[in-house]
Amino acid sequence: MKLFTLQTGVSNSHFLQAKALTEQRQEVKLKDLLVLEHTLWENVDQKMKVSEIVQNHALDIVSKTKMEIPRIIRKQKVNQRTKVTTRITMKLEQRSLTTQVFFIVC
């Protein structure tokens, strides 16, 4: 990976070293690459793509799974709410039909 030098003259390798030091480590770990997602883009349009690329390289499968869990849970909750809403709607429609049939018979 090519490390870019920012306009301030600080290279991304310094950011990586600083990240490791803030976690009281002497060596940079793969997860430290995540700090680069905030430094490698030049305009806002690039930010999402850069973030995606950095995360794909910096995160191991366990970390990626941990990050996906909240999204999966949110999706599951939405699906459950949709199912409940659908069941309620169906019951209301059935009751409405039953009521209509009752009034027609009477």
Would you kindly provide a written description of the structure presented here, covering whatever features stand out?
This protein has 106 residues and is mainly α. It has two domains: 1-59, no CATH class; 61-106. It is 67% helix and 0% strand. It contains three helices and no strands. It has helices spanning 12-22, 44-58, 61-105. The longest helix has 45 residues, at 61-105.
Major beta-sheet overview: none
Total count of domains: 2
Number of helices: 3
- Using only CA atoms, what is the Rg? 26 Å
Number of strands: 0
DSSP helix fraction: 55-70%
Strand fraction? under 5%
How are the SSEs ordered, and which strands pair?
Blueprint lengths: L11 H11 L21 H15 L2 H45 L1
Question: Can you give me a brief rundown of this structure?
Answer:
The protein contains three helices and no strands. It has 106 residues and is mainly α.
